[in-house]
Amino acid sequence: MKTSSIIFLPCTNIKNTLSFYHDLLHLPIYQTQGDYLYIFDTGYGYWGFCEYSDQRVPLSGPKGVCLSINLDSKEEVLQKYEELKDVVKVYQEPKQHPTFPVYSFFILDPDGYLVEFQKINP
Question: pTM of this prediction?
Fold first, then answer.
């Protein structure tokens, strides 16, 4: 039996979220549910973003949710950074984490979610 995971997150404007994750980051759309919910395929699981009718607040900010995309090498992390640095808000430039075996950088999505591109070292 094959399993996968999905996380659903609130967003304030689904069209901005769609543009960011699909058009800019090139994540494939796995499924849509009406015009208010998009599910993106990260390759290892799914991220669903929903513009909820009850106006839920995004779980973002420094103490909120961090969404990480694992890349195959440090070079790919640097390549992705060069591709994005002038078109998105960079939260933290590429560097080796001082405690964990991770090389990464962080950007912010339209709702302030931290999005990390990382290479986890063995």
Answer: 0.90
Buried b (16+ CB within 10 A) or exposed e, 35-49: eebbbbebeeebbbb
Domain boundaries, the chain: 6-120
Pairing state of beta strands 66-70 and 6-10? unpaired
Q: How far apart are CA 108 and CA 93, in angstroms?
A: 12
Partners of 118 in beta bridges: 70, 104
Please say whether the beta carbons of 86 and 110 come within 8 A: no
Query: For residue 30, what are the CA distances in angstroms to 37, 42, 80?
Result: 11, 9, 22
For 78-117, write each residue's pLDDT tens digit.
Answer: 999 999 999 999 999 999 999 999 999 999 999 999 999 9
Q: Which CATH architecture has domain 6-120?
A: Roll (3.10)
- Residue 64 has φ and ψ, to the nearest 5°, of -100, -155
